[in-house]
Amino acid sequence: MSKPLKQIHLAAHFPGVNNTTVWSDPAAGSHIEFSSFAHFAKTAERARFDFLFLAEGLRLREQGGKIYDLDVVGRPDTFTILAALAAVTEHLGLTGTINSTFNEPYEVARQFASLDHLSGGRAAWNVVTSWDAFTGENFRRGGFLPQDERYSRAKEFLATANELFDSWHGDEILADQATGAFLRDAGAGSFVHQGPQFDIHGQFNVPRSPQGRPVIFQAGESDEGREFAASSADAIFSRYATLDAGQAFYTDVKSRLAKYGRAPGELLILPAASFVLGDTDAEAEEIAHQVRRQQVSGATALKHLEFVWNRDLSSYDPEGPLPDVDPLVSEEHISRGRAQVRMYRDPIAIAREWRELAEANKWSIRDLVINTGNRQTFVGSPATVARTIDDFVQADVSDGFILVPHITPGGLDTFADTVVPLLQERGVFRTEYEGTTLRDHLGLAHPDEKRSERVAS
Amino acid sequence: MSSSPASHLHLAVALDGTGWHPASWREPVARPRELFTAGYWAGLVAEAERGLVDFVTIEDGLGLQSSHHGEPDGRTDQVRGRLDAVLIASRIAPLSSHIGLVPTVIATHTEPFHISKAIATLDYVSTGRAGLRVQISARPHEADHFGRRAFPPIDLAELRSPAGQERLAEHFDEAADHVEVVRRLWDSWEDDAEIRDAATGRFIDRDKLHYIGFEGRRFSVKGPSITPRPPQGQPLVTALGHQTVPYRLIARQTDVGYVTPQDSADARAIVAEIRAEQQAAGRAGDTVHVFGDLVVFLDDTPAAAAARKERLDALDGGAYTGDARIFTGTAAELADLLEEFAAEGLSGFRLRPAVLGHDLPRITADLVPELQRRGRFRTAYEADTLRGLLGLARPANRYAVAATA
Asked: What's the mean per-residue pLDDT of chain A?
């Protein structure tokens, strides 16, 4: 007997503040006005997506000591936008990226619990960490967290927040107008947490929310990050959306679940994925190429080369050859507030490799950045893209994808209108929402069910 | 911008749980089981908007409600638990169109950077109807929820001593710094900073983004905000005060101060004190509205209102008293009192409905028409922003002014 078809999970990532987002396109709208968010969310809901996803950054990026001005700059407050979106959608999950370094558990827990109440059980939290003093300059606590403590803080932050979510069980509020008993007992929400990062106690003041706890996302990449996700996340926001890398990541992370007493379905792997659609595959390829040229202007190409070279390259011609000078290897980096520069561990070797590539292909600086940058994940006609997404999910590259359109706010419209119906025809994507909460959409048990199952088993 | 005549009073309604009387939840109209749903709050705001009130405030706190000033009271017979006020306001913003939304934020334990972008975002979501009410928390048990500072127990008598006043001043000074950072961050983007210049590939003109460089006793914040300047430029800042120390915060940092006069002479003295502080702070030319706070029981007869209060007091096991004067009576009597207080310099009122399900509809259906008949209240919303409703111009950006000077 063949394996039953996996149902695909789809989410919509609001276009972000990097060069994936093409703001110069005539169709590009505001990244701040609520109407853009409402349009995007309503499209995702019309397409029966599982959830909308918002990223976050708490300090404007800088390069060479100046605010980086070539990409979209600025975004609204995550919680506030998600709460407003709850008013214009009915089913769509609402996932916010919230930092565990520049927040306190009591406040974040009450914000997520409030969002879960106000959305009728649709809240999710993508837990991220930072340690940089650069971002810390915007906050009371400053930026003094040593890098090796960031996971221990994140773990303890999440554990503490879970203790707060669980401090109410759901049966405390009687609100019995006849007898005058509002609470079952005065100790509702009591908690004590003592640990190296947090030493807090008292009473949580938001009653148990519809989902019990928000759905928890992680973006773990390192071994430590993967363990953290395997032990305590409901879903992983990963960057492995290609066949080989995706399968390897999927197998690795799912295999870590057993030791925490968890089944494979209890942790979903949802990579970010970009896409370009055309009437035909050839047309889509052509558009994809144009989009990559829009994403990488000459000025952007030089700035991206600076990530590796760690030098001011503004005097170079982006249509000319790569610099002869080697990258500057230093603890001080020209780019601040950006996660991706950490990916270049051996800049000298990368520079050598890139020079060779450029010479062999007769590439300019801009050609090189375009051709070595991330190609869009799915490029083709709606039929091709639907089939590829389905094939990838059935081949355990992932459990679905978090789609990142390059146009705000309409970049999801065509996908919703053309690809989603094909996935529905294939019988791998819902035609109607079957439940009301995000846990329902993702097939995740309510925390109370999980608890009672464990007690019973 | 059209503005209302000076003779018009401003009205705000203070939303808290099922109402301000602690036994309000036991009234048949109270719907206490719906307190934690969006629909409950949407209904209240829709009712207030029907009454053309300037704005609603939403109470908040970082601990369970308590009838004691500084510690949990262990009671189970009153409403306990609440949702985050900023998120309630944002959830309701798309469902309303003219009314201002003013959630409470606690300066003592929150990050001004987060609060600034949250209220800026509320302003975007509501297209110019956002504000905040800044509050401090000196409560030791709330500090224990954060574990970063320990506060000594609160003794009301001790708070009136010089040492107590100093302690209070520290909290309010911190709140003033908090508001200063929030306000600077709102201005940290000039209005035309986003240029989308395809020719040069620049999305913003970074010369129009500004580091705020705030360094204070409790915190330093670099900036700029991650959120562009909100539609109103500066959303409304409000605070409640009962004595000199908070009056100073009202005079220095707010657009609206809520005060709690017991009678006309009291109202006159409070307004004079705030105006003097305003002068001392160099803000004599700025509009700072002083609103009187009143708890209201509104019925067709004074006797019915008084009886209702008595009945609720009995249910709660004691007479409800609070910081604000408690009014029981008819809408016409309340209109008389508001006019009397307004003559002493109050430009508006924040009414605290004793029972939201009863007294809020009485405000919109009885009080508002009564004030309209007297030519003291608007008959239609005359502006699209909260600042506009309050006759406050959209302020120039402090950094843009500095650049052109």
From this structure: 93
Chain B: residue whose CA lies nearest to A187: B74
Q: Range of B327's domain?
A: 10-138+235-404
Contact call for B62 and A205, based on CB within 8 A: yes
Give the per-residue pLDDT at B404.
53
Structure tokens given for A299: 């000025």
Which of helix, strand or coil describes residue A30? coil
Integer-rounded Cα radius of gyration of chain B: 21
CA distance B231 to chain A (A): 10
The contacts of residue B39 (CB under 8 Å, 6+ apart) are: none
Is residue B265 a part of any domain in this protein?
yes
pLDDT in tens, B336-395: 999 999 999 999 999 999 999 999 999 999 999 999 999 999 999 999 999 999 999 999
Measure the CA–CA gap between A240 and A249, rounded to whole angstroms: 7
> Contact A81/B90, CB-based, under 8 Å?
yes
Instruction: Find the range with the poorest average confidence among A176-190, A327-341, A376-390, B207-221.
Output: A327-341
Question: Closest to A203 (Cβ–Cβ): which among B63, B122, B205?
Answer: B63
Number of domains in chain B: 1
**Does B77 carry a binding-site annotation?**
no
| A51 close to A441: Cβ distance less than 8 angstroms | yes
Cβ atoms B63, B72 nearer than 8 A: yes
What local confidence, expressed as pLDDT, does residue A3 receive? 77
DSSP three-state, residue B189: strand
What's the rounded mean pLDDT across residues B249-273? Answer: 98
Taking CA atoms, what residue in B is nearest to A111?
Answer: B84
pLDDT tens digits, B277-325: 999 999 999 999 999 999 999 999 999 999 999 999 999 999 999 999 9
Tell me if A222 is assigned to a ligand binding site: yes
CATH for the A9-279+376-456 domain, from 3.20.20.30, 1.10.10.10, 3.40.190.10, 3.40.50.1820: 3.20.20.30
- A150-165 helix and A105-118 helix, angle to the nearest 10 degrees: 50
Report the relative pairing of strands A62-63 and A66-67 from DSSP bridges. antiparallel
A343 vs B209, higher pLDDT: B209
The answer to whether B49 touches B96, Cβ cutoff 8 Å, is yes
pLDDT, one tens digit per residue, over B1-12 is 445 677 899 999
Mean pLDDT of A175-188: 97
B90 touches chain A (CB under 8 A): yes
